[in-house]
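Format notes (please read before filing issues)

Several people have asked whether sequences and structure tokens are stored in separate files. They are not. Every record keeps both together, in the order shown below: the sequence lines, then the token lines. Line labels are part of the format and must not be stripped during preprocessing.
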Amino acid sequence: MEIVFNMQKETQKEFLVSVIIPVYNASAFVEEAVISAVNLTEVGEIILIEDGSEDNSIEKCILLESKFSKVKLYTHIGNKNKGASESRNLGISKATFPMISFLDADDVYCKNRFVKDKILLSTHPNLDGCYSAARYLNEPFGKVFTLRKKIEPSKLFHSLLRGTYGHFHTNGITLKKEVFDSIGYFNPILHLHQDAEMWLRVSFSKKIQGAELDESVALIRRHEGNRIWKGQSNKTKYLAYITFYDWVIKKKINIVDLFLLVRKITLLQYKIENRNYIILLVLNCIKSIKTKFKLI
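Then the structure lines:
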């Protein structure tokens, strides 16, 4: 029993996470974000990617790096603004620990952020990652991003396409770094919804499972300056789904899931172009089936 206990203890001791925080015009919030993560025992490092902010975020980040040994600061070449995708990608490339998680610079982690992640991933080495609940900050009765039931990893992709049991938030994701080496990094073409497109790729290709689905492990701040909330439209959602479609059509996607994906794309196209929905759906289904069979 002592040997088993020591092995489990050693395994959990090795569970260390690189937390990636893209920073853009977040000088008012980034310190709170960092402090919420820096004292968590599972956090090995916090990687700040200063994304060419127009406020004094870079000065705040420099101070945080000098204050906390876990904090590392990087910028794009020429301190240019590259967007969330390329900022997260730079963070992933600089990460030195086997696990990756993300935190937006205006959001915060809760004290239980990695408690169940560590237990789940340490005892199930076949899993590639996990997801947990997150909710809006200062909105006790506001929206919670979670799945309302436990979903088998093999059925997660189908569940996310249907949307029946909900969705998770980027702040609640923990993945092995090697996942990105396998399926690619965030798509820089997408200035919005790049995380949603990534989680479709992950759920399709990898085994990820729910960790903490009831209690929130991260809090999301809503405010006027948040670039994630700005500019969202049917067109930006359509681009994200089309980008994923172009990636997954070359994979072994089953016909039911392909139809669900095409239906989502068609609904957005219908809203954008104001064309007959049924005709669009039929044409898109025929096109996708032809494309799929050409690739087989």
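For reference, the curators noted about this record: Residues 1-12 have pLDDT under 50 and may be disordered. The longest helix spans residues 255-273.
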